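RECORD TYPE: protein structure
NAME: C-type lysozyme inhibitor domain-containing protein
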Amino acid sequence: MKFMIRTVPALSGTAFLALSLLSGAAFADCTRHIYNKSANVWSYGFTASKDEELGDKALVIVNGETAKIEYVTGDSAPKWLRLEKVTYTDGKPHYKESFAVNGCYLVHDGVTGRAVLNDPADGDVIFID
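PREDICTED:
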């Protein structure tokens, strides 16, 4: 099975991320949010592996915005949420990290740097500086 990531515009400039499978059933386990409380622009998206780049799948969230994100499970559902700080120094992003998705929970060990995970609810992300 293959998966597809679609963005659908929503009110107040927020982005809605919907995952739908090209074949087979998809089940939306939960809807969560990404809050950009930083002074920077960030990008995010789902990938099938930890090291996969976002490329055309990158969704941008500017400072002050909130985006809705829908976690979908299934054999072909993406297993990683990739977060990247779009502000560059010397041509390299300041922050670039992927986190495993387990249901509606983002798996991590210890400090996650410029992203607060699973707060205020499991699966939520807050970008900070």
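COMMENT: The chain is about 0% helix and 50% strand.
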